[in-house]
Amino acid sequence: MSESITRREMLAGTAAAGLCLSPTLRSLLAAETKPAFKIGACDWSLGQHQTPVALEVAKKIGLDGVEVSFDGGDRFDLREQAVRKQYLEASQKLGIEIPSLAMGLLNGVPYSSDPQAERWVGECVDVMAQLKVKIVLLAFFGKGNIKGKTELQE
Questions:
Q1: Residue 105 — pLDDT band, cuts 50, 70, 90?
Q2: Buried b (16+ CB within 10 A) or exposed e, 113-132
Q3: Topology (CATH) of 40-144
Q4: Where are the domains of the chain?
Q5: Are strands 97-103 and 65-69 parallel, antiparallel or unpaired?
Q6: Res. 34: pLDDT tops 90
Q7: 139 close to 103: Cβ distance less than 8 angstroms
Q8: Which of 28, 32, 51, 122 has the fewest CB atoms nearer than 10 Å to its CB?
Q9: How far apart are alpha carbons 139 and 130 in whole angstroms?
Q10: Following DSSP, what letter does each residue of 8-74 receive, concatenated?
Q11: How far apart are CA 47 and CA 150, in angstroms?
Q12: Looking at residues 103-131, what average pLDDT do you find?
């Protein structure tokens, strides 16, 4: 008994085989899939608070980015152009993003009650523009906690 194949079945089989052998399809199927989201950490969580070394640590452990501390002081003050340049060069060289800044200093110097905190936030916004960063963590823990203090929340 002989089985015959229809022209439609023959064309479908040929097309499927052609697609399977196609270099484009093979390369698409073999390509690594891109993760749906990126993972980063705060520089202080990496044991490298307010230093570009945090980006090196992030690269070493496979992270995509680092939230960088914006704090005053002598160590890597982001208000200084040379410091921003160090961070940007490290970011580009290592392929580690700087998606956000963090103002942890507001935990000890409350934004709600200390006038210098408002000035610092303004300076941080200026730095964000220069680093092309669109997100900042304004910390409100410790002395800066406004939970249950309705007069400070208004």
A1: confident
A2: eeeebeebeebbeebbeebe
A3: TIM Barrel (3.20.20)
A4: 40-144
A5: parallel
A6: no
A7: yes
A8: 32
A9: 21
A10: HHHHHHHHHHHHHH-HHHHHHHHSPPPPSS--EEEGGGGT-TTSTHHHHHHHHTT-SEEEEE---SS
A11: 35
A12: 88
